[in-house]
Write a structure and sequence with these properties.
The chain folds into three domains: 14-41 and 175-486, Alpha-Beta Barrel (TIM Barrel), CATH 3.20.20.120; 52-169, Immunoglobulin-like (Sandwich); 517-597, Immunoglobulin-like (Sandwich). Helix content is 19%, strand content 28%. An eight-stranded parallel β-sheet has the order 23-22-21-20-19-18-17-24. It has a five-stranded antiparallel β-sheet with strand order 25-26-27-32-29. It has a four-stranded antiparallel β-sheet with strand order 5-14-15-16, with no helix packed on it. Helix 8 (397-413) links the parallel strand 22 and strand 23. Bound molecules: 2-acetamido-2-deoxy-beta-D-glucopyranose (9 copies). Residues 1-26 form the signal peptide.
Length: 598
């Protein structure tokens, strides 16, 4: 997270000068002027507004269930692990590749043929409007290799009409010794799959990444026991924040993380546009068993980086990580974060498998910039929460759910719903006094850049609401900016991490299982809920977005006459949660996780 007036602390020192110079030339954020001396201009780059049609339109998407496949998957016993997922959306708006669907009223299924490099792989009848319909195939008909295979799918709509979809299928050879680990994306649920981060042999597991962007200089590099503490606190991933000036120390820190059993999210924010530097870093890091995924641009849309920069970096990284460098997968996915709500979204997002959003809405005036003294609108100003609506200038948790939803909707319109997943970045900062007392963090209040965007830190409960709202709206990873954070946020984040990922009643068992069915409901009373049903049990994850006690009624959730069935079993609570037979009372910004029989 970097804002114009607010360089990340690790930039202090030498880099602050270059930042100050940059500011003179690039006085925009998300393409908008934000200084009072500058005029209002159209930032451009808006995502096209969808046209609505009175007649139905149909599109076809297809893609591998898992990216990438490896020869070890020949033996998979999971019946849909090796399959092509097919979507056949029927909509009344123009989404990419859609054509008019004149026979919508007479056809309930259509015949779909999947070709790999021009040869038939599988064909089947698929229900109209299907989502993630799995067509199993055998990998034995393909040869593993670096080069991705071209997938072309055709659905016959009758009367000679057809709709076409295409994507890539990557089937890599077993990893060479120069690569330390493999992270597969299971697009049936969007989950990452990997073997133990310690480097010990073991089966692939489903991973719920939860942790922080974690300062390296003065923090991770100064106290090597931090990794084992984070592991005990339940976190699964550490996103190390550069710069990493000394590779010896970097390797020591990463060794500790590996030993503790923590995944690494490797950040190249300052260097992702420098091919030489990216190559050096990928070659250094790719042999680590605990590498989970790469990270390139940090708010590249905020700073208006070249529109092709994220895709260029992704292809380069893939080419050094076992892939073809032309769009096929490597051994690990690539991520980035977007800060703008609506600025060249498709261009920047195209360079990521895992797309993050960082909607920071706590403690800032989201419609009037206290930093710059201007209003914030769709074409002017920077309030630290781009295009946030808030309520009377106060940021709202709905700004987060809206951002998650709009990213998912655009991915759907662009035909990327079988290719990308979205993660959420909860705000774990506000004022930064606490940094100076954390470990050896090299700062003093005098050298801290002054920020008036955010006037306070989120409370622990607000932190949990931000996280859960993100998860309920499709977020399959929670990585907060930033650690060091307040003890209260750390404690709340830890409780959530433990409930999500540890023990027999861990919530991620519901969220990550491809067999779960999912439903999201926001009640009129202001409670955001997600429900995952698996084997006749439902996980209810709910956050009260109000700053007062609010009751969630089973009847608000459309569960039918069974309601909460045999009653709720609490598996997580933040703040106050008081469960009755057919309702739960949540305290001010309280959250809870409950399991009931569906
Ligand atoms: C939908 O139509 C609008 C208006 O014609 C156009 O600007 C936009 O690019 C189209 N979007 C897609 C995904 O085809
Ligand atoms: C297609 O399915 C979606 C949900 O998956 C639903 O909202 C939509 O109404 C369906 N469209 C049609 C035309 O049935
Ligand atoms: C896939 O298609 C691209 C572009 O049409 C072509 O260059 C490439 O050789 C094809 N790949 C395979 C494996 O046939
Ligand atoms: C890097 O760190 C190691 C271990 O602390 C130290 O021995 C070495 O001198 C450092 N290298 C540089 C260039 O500072
Ligand atoms: C790019 O990275 C290389 C290797 O780290 C470095 O030597 C070079 O100075 C960098 N180039 C720029 C323009 O920063
Ligand atoms: C990005 O696009 C610009 C102009 O459109 C082009 O000059 C440049 O070579 C491209 N860069 C990469 C890395 O592809
Ligand atoms: C935001 O700023 C505007 C303009 O100064 C002010 O009217 C409003 O009360 C502020 N809202 C908050 C929540 O501070
Ligand atoms: C999470 O729960 C599932 C289902 O109960 C279980 O199989 C898995 O082992 C649990 N994970 C952990 C880390 O305990
Ligand atoms: C919220 O509910 C709790 C538990 O029922 C109660 O103790 C508390 O007084 C309530 N707070 C308010 C402001 O009503």
């Amino acid at each position: 997270m970097i804002h114009p007036s607010r360089p990340s602390l690790s930039l202090l020192g030498a880099l602050i000068t270059s930042w100050a110079c940059a500011e003179v030339h690039a006085q925009t954020w998300c393409g908008k002027n934000y200084m009072i001396t500058e005029p209002v201009t159209n930032p451009g780059g808006q995502f096209p507004i969808s046209k609505t049609f009175s007649e139905p339109q149909i599109a076809l998407r297809c893609g591998p269930a898992v990216k990438p496949y490896l020869p070890e998957d020949l033996d998979s016993t999971d019946p849909t692990f090796v399959s092509i997922l097919v979507d056949l959306p029927v909509v009344f708006s123009n989404i990419s590749g859609a054509i008019p669907f004149n026979r919508a009223s007479s056809l309930s299924t259509v015949d779909v043929i999947v070709l790999v490099d021009g040869k038939e792989l599988v064909s089947a009848s698929v229900p109209v409007n299907a989502s993630k319909h799995a067509l199993p195939f055998s990998l034995s008909s393909l040869q593993p290799g670096t080069e991705a295979h071209n997938l072309t799918c055709t659905a016959s709509l009758g009367e000679g009409e057809e709709v076409i979809g295409s994507s890539l299928l990557t089937y890599l050879p077993a990893k060479p010794n120069s690569i330390g680990s493999v992270t597969k994306m299971d697009m049936r649920s969007g989950t990452l799959l990997a073997k133990p981060p310690t480097g010990e042999d073991g089966p692939y597991g489903r991973i719920f990444p939860i942790g922080f962007y974690t300062q390296f200089e003065g923090y991770l590099d100064s106290e090597l026991s931090i990794s084992s503490t984070l592991k005990e606190q339940g976190f699964t991933v550490v996103h190390t924040v550069p710069p990493f000036e000394n590779n010896t120390i970097l390797e020591e820190v990463l060794d500790k993380m590996q030993k503790a059993g923590l995944w690494l999210m490797y950040d190249m924010r300052y260097t992702y546009m420098n091919d030489t530097s990216v190559s050096e870093q990928v070659k250094l890091i790719r042999s680590r068993p605990n590498l989970l995924l790469w990270y390139t641009g940090d708010e590249p849309d905020g700073t208006s980086d070249p529109l092709n920069a994220t895709t260029h970096a992704q292809f380069l990284i893939n080419s050094l990580d076992g892939g073809d460098g032309k769009g096929g997968s490597g051994y690990h996915p690539v991520s980035l974060v977007l800060n703008c709500e609506n600025y060249f979204w498709s261009e920047y997002a195209s360079g990521a498998d895992v797309l993050m959003q960082d909607t920071y809405m706590i403690g800032n005036n989201v419609t009037f910039s206290s930093e710059w003294g201007t209003p914030c609108t769709v074409d002017y100003g920077d309030c630290g929460c781009d295009n946030c609506q808030g309520i009377d200038g106060v940021g709202s948790f709905k700004d987060i759910s809206f951002r998650m939803d709009v990213f998912a909707e655009r991915a759907f319109i662009d035909g990327w719903e079988l290719e990308k997943v979205v993660w959420t970045v909860p705000q774990g900062f506000g004022t930064e006094e606490y940094l100076c007392s954390s470990y050896a963090f090299r700062c003093s209040p005098l050298t801290l850049p002054s920020s008036r965007y955010w006037t306070r830190n989120p409370t622990g409960e607000e932190f949990v609401v931000q996280s859960i709202v993100g998860i309920n709206h499709g977020g399959l990873g929670v990585v907060s900016w930033d650690d060091p954070t307040t003890p209260e946020i750390k404690a709340s984040a830890s409780a959530l991490a433990l409930a999500l990922t540890s023990g027999p009643s861990n919530m991620s068992a519901f969220i990550l299982n491809p067999s779960s069915t999912f439903k999201q409901v926001t009640t009129t009373s202001g409670i955001d809920t997600g429900m995952w049903t698996l084997d006749r049990k439902t996980l209810l994850l709910a956050s009260n977005m109000n700053y007062e006690n609010t009751t969630l009624e089973a009847a608000d959730l459309g569960l039918g006459s069974k309601g909460f069935g045999g009653g709720l079993t609490e598996v997580f609570c933040s703040g106050l949660c008081s469960a009755g037979d057919e309702s739960v009372v949540f305290g001010s910004v309280g959250s809870g996780g409950f399991v009931f029989s569906a």
